[in-house]
Amino acid sequence: MIAVNVADLKSDAEKYLDAVARGETVEVCRDGKPVAVLAPVPKRPMDRWKRANPLAIPGLSLSKEIVADRQEGS
């Protein structure tokens, strides 16, 4: 974790935001006491799931298979 005082953050904001973009966490201090933390935005699991689409099976539709299974069972 990187620690920075408010004055240095103001003068070099781009530098610290670049560090956060690379995955670093920045602790902002005022008068030597921590007052805030700048952290990377977490990747949302649903976004990764949508891109990966691990359940896709070529030629099959899950909803159609469920409906067919229900119809066979009744």
Task: Describe it.
This protein has four helices and three strands, in the order βααββαα. The termini are far apart. Helices cover 47% and strands 20% of the residues. A hairpin with a 2-residue loop joins strand 2 (26-30) and strand 3.
Please give a handful of descriptors for the protein shown.
alpha+beta; 3 strands
Shape annotation: rod-shaped
The rounded distance between the terminal residues' Cα atoms is 60 Å
- Outline the biggest β-sheet: 3 strands, mixed
Backbone structural class: alpha+beta
Please tell me the overall pLDDT. Answer: 84
Element order, helices and strands?
EHHEEHH
Residue windows where pLDDT falls under 50 for at least 5 positions: none
Rg computed from alpha carbons, rounded to a whole number of angstroms: 24 Å
The tally of helices reads: 4
The proportion of residues forming helix, as a percent range, comes to 40-55%
* Major sheet: arrangement of strands: 1-2-3
Q: Which band does the percent of strand residues land in?
A: 15-25%
